[in-house]
């Protein structure tokens, strides 16, 4: 049997007198760990955390969202010869027009395809499948009968045609060719003198543009119903496409405005100016405030801040002026340095007037920039 060497015996003797701190050896097998024991999870990569939000935002982009929007068209609308213009315009827009029976008849609705699952960080109401809007197409004759009913019966209790109180959708009306119809129904001078059907003639004469405008006001005030009067299917198609674009852009705007203070932008430009307790930075903050006026260059802001290093000094100068005209033109003649070899120009009366009104007026609704 081999005898233990001196080194090994020495280490054993040291172990009797003092304990050595425990040590661990890292090997490939240690990475897996014993069965049934979970290894601690690593922190998620920030890029991986931002990826779902970026994907949700990409789906909400108007160019992507319009493809997820379907226009449901009642088959009765397609029976009209001009309906092909509407369908071609919707196909060119990129949305999906589908022929499905609607209530009421001759109407259009909008439906949005909801993603599954809904992206995190986006309010659920943004992905609402059914839009609360319906566009009802009316023939001129039908609209004229409704105008007679609205104008003959007085009072807010008058039932509004084409509107059912139990319907949750907000109705919009569209009439094609109403102007041409009213002109065609206008009786001639001979028919006015010798009417064969006095009752029918009186009913036709009773409806003109004054009555139509009165009915439009009543529809807007009583039932919050918008009426679109167009001359052709081309105009109707343009309106439907514009309305579809607006519905496609709404989820993106709602998601962007759902955060706190959506009007604040990120980045160095919106970080503001740091001001120390001893006042360091106030002059720079005053310079940036002057720069916020429309059509103010850095050179113009330098000229104003050099002459009046703080807004308080400028207010004191306004108080020392004797007349209103003197106050409005206090900054007009300040020279502005534009570069070497170039004669200096002035601040000008327009900016002088705007700065004066900004610091002296007490009217919160006053419009400072007349050129905006």
Topology as a string of helices (H) and strands (E): HHHEHHEEEHEHHHHEHHHHHEEH
**Which structural class do you get from the secondary structure elements?**
alpha/beta
N→C terminal distance: 104 Å
Strand percentage lies at: 5-15%
Which fold name is given in CATH as the topology of the largest domain?
Rossmann fold
Number of strands: 8
Shape annotation: elongated
How many strands, which pairing sense, and closed or not: the largest β-sheet?
A: 6 strands, mixed
Helix percentage? 40-55%
CATH top level of the largest domain is Alpha Beta
InterPro entries: EME1/EME2_C (IPR042530), ERCC4_domain (IPR006166), Mms4/EME1/EME2 (IPR033310), XPF_nuclease_EME2 (IPR047523)
GO molecular function, one term: DNA binding
Pfam families: EME1-MUS81_C (PF21292)
Region (Disordered): 1-58, 99-124
Describe, in plain words, how this protein is organized in 3D:
The chain is of the alpha/beta class and 372 residues long. It folds into 2 domains: 54-186 and 206-258, Rossmann fold, CATH 3.40.50; 282-360, DNA polymerase, domain 1 (Orthogonal Bundle), CATH 1.10.150.670. The chain has 16 helices and 8 strands. It has helices at 6-17, 46-60, 62-65, 75-78, 83-93, 140-152, 178-185, 189-193, 198-205, 209-223, 233-257, 282-291, 298-307, 311-320, 324-328, 349-360; strands at 69-73, 96-99, 107-112, 130-138, 170-176, 226-230, 335-336, 345-346. A 6-stranded mixed β-sheet has the order 2-1-3-4-5-6, sandwiched between helices. Strands 7-8 form a two-stranded antiparallel sheet. Helix 5 runs parallel beside helix 11 and helix 12 (282-291) packs across helix 13 (298-307). The model is unreliable at 6-17, 23-41 and 197-205 (pLDDT under 50). Residues 41-58 have a biased composition (Basic and acidic residues). Residues 70-319 form the ERCC4 domain. Pfam families: EME1-MUS81_C. This is Structure-specific endonuclease subunit EME2. GO terms for molecular function: crossover junction DNA endonuclease activity; DNA binding.
């Amino acid at each position: 049997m081999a005898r233990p060497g001196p080194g090994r015996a020495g280490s054993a003797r040291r172990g009797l007198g003092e304990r050595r701190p425990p040590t661990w050896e890292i090997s490939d097998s240690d990475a897996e760990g014993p069965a049934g024991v979970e290894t601690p999870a690593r922190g998620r990569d920030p890029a991986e955390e931002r990826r779902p939000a970026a994907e949700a935002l990409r789906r909400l982009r108007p160019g992507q969202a319009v493809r997820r929007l379907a226009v449901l068209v009642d088959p009765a609308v397609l029976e009209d010869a001009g309906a092909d213009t509407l369908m071609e315009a919707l196909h060119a827009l990129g949305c999906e027009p589908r022929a499905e029976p609607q209530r009421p008849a001759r109407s259009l609705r909008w439906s949005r395809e909801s993603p599954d699952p809904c992206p995190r960080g986006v309010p659920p109401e943004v992905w609402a499948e059914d839009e609360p809007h319906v566009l009802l197409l009316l023939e001129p004759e039908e609209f004229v009968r409704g105008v007679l009913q609205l104008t003959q019966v007085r009072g807010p209790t008058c039932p509004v045609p084409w509107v059912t109180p139990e319907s949750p959708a907000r109705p919009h009306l569209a009439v094609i060719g109403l102007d041409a119809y009213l002109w065609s129904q206008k009786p001639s001078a001979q028919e006015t003198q010798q009417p064969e059907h006095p009752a029918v003639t009186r009913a036709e004469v009773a409806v003109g543009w004054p009555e139509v405008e009165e009915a439009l006001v009543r529809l807007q005030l009583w039932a919050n119903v918008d009426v679109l009067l167009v001359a052709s299917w081309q105009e109707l198609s343009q309106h439907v496409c514009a309305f579809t674009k607006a519905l496609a852009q709404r989820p993106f705007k709602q998601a962007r405005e759902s955060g706190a203070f959506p009007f604040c932008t990120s980045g160095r430009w919106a970080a503001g100016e740091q001001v120390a307790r001893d006042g360091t930075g106030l002059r720079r903050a005053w310079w940036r405030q002057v720069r916020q006026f429309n059509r103010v260059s850095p050179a113009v802001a330098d000229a104003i801040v050099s002459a009046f290093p703080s807004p308080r000094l400028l207010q004191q100068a306004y108080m020392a002026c004797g007349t209103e005209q003197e106050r409005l033109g206090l900054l007009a003649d300040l020279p502005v340095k534009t570069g070497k070899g170039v004669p200096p120009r002035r601040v000008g009366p327009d900016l002088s007037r705007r700065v004066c009104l900004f610091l002296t007026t007490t009217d919160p609704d006053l419009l400072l920039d007349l050129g905006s």
